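Limitations
The structure tokens in this dataset are predictions for the assembled complex, not deposited experimental models. Users should treat interface geometry with appropriate caution, especially where small molecules or nucleic acid strands are included. An illustrative entry is reproduced here so readers can see what is and is not provided.
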Amino acid sequence: MSIPGHETQKSTTGYTLTAIVLHWGTAALIIAGFALGEYMGDLAVSPMKLRLYSYHKWLGVTVFTLAVVRLAWRAFHAPPPFPQKMPSWERAGALAAHALLYALLFAIPVVGWLGSSAHGFQTVYLGVVPIPDLLAKNKELAELLEEVHEQLNHALFLIVAAHIGAALKHHFIDKDDILRRMIGLGGRK
Amino acid sequence: MKRLAAILLSMLIFIPGALYAAPVVREKSSISFLTRQMGVPVSGSFRRFDADVSYDPRNAGKSRASITIYMDDVDAGSDDGTIEIKRKPWFDVKNHPRAEFVSSSLKDLGAGRYEVAGKMTIKGRTRDVSAPVVVKKDGGLWLFDGGFIINRLDFSIGEGPWADTGTVDDKVEVRFRLFAPADKK
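Predicted assembly:
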């Protein structure tokens, strides 16, 4: 992902504006999707419940799409390297956490979509674009997928917490540019 | 008791001038419906109904059909939906256990195609409906295959907050496939 190298090239220490917008856009969408998911499940059947379920699915489809866009963007725009003084265990941890985050950005919407199909409800993005069902209606499978969807979200919650914690640690304790560069601020040196 | 029923039935059949209406073959026949919820198609079906059809291709205009649907035996496509749809804002099954259709005319459009018109009663509300029907021989049976669209709010199906057609569309597609014994003549 990143090659620890010469620190001379100042321009490679920043993210592209596209990468920054995609990062924070994804963050906002998964927070909204997560909160909706936690809230909507226990509601009594009502028009509001139908709406919230649809919004939740639309958020998931959007997160999935953005994850594809981000990986494609990343393939052509390498993220800036880690700060040179960052120890190798931290680099390994960061790489692993980022890989897991990406994996979940794909897996969670996919499992949600499969579960919805297994429940007998097709996903229709924004109420307009029908996404074909891969699975036929199957109650046992639907309940299993719903459970997996929920557990993956709990995993996501923990990794996001670690992600935020690490960013704050870099900013306040290590006093490096990790957080600043994702906000779009220049280096502080 | 069975014997008495048989006698009464045979009397009914052989009384001159009495219209012989054949009950449909229930195991093969189906009545289903399709709704759209937030743009998502959701299908359901009525699992218990009685239907009598009399049909003579040589005198199609004299054909008759009547259908009684027992609303409690509905499948709305999901567990939650099936519970919800029987409640007061929707079918109000407790007060309106049956829905009925009685035909009033059958228009021959040629080549086995017809237009059936009649009165549909759901939840105590009666409205005129008409539907294209294709009639064809299937084994030893007549298959009546057709469908029509109703506006659920015409029958007060989905009251209160559910009257919001932005969530559940007003239009409901009803599809029927009725198999009736072909007359042996």
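Some entries come with short summary sentences. For this one: Chain A touches chain B at residues 45-48, 50-51, 53-54, 119-124, 126-128, 130 (CB under 8 Å).
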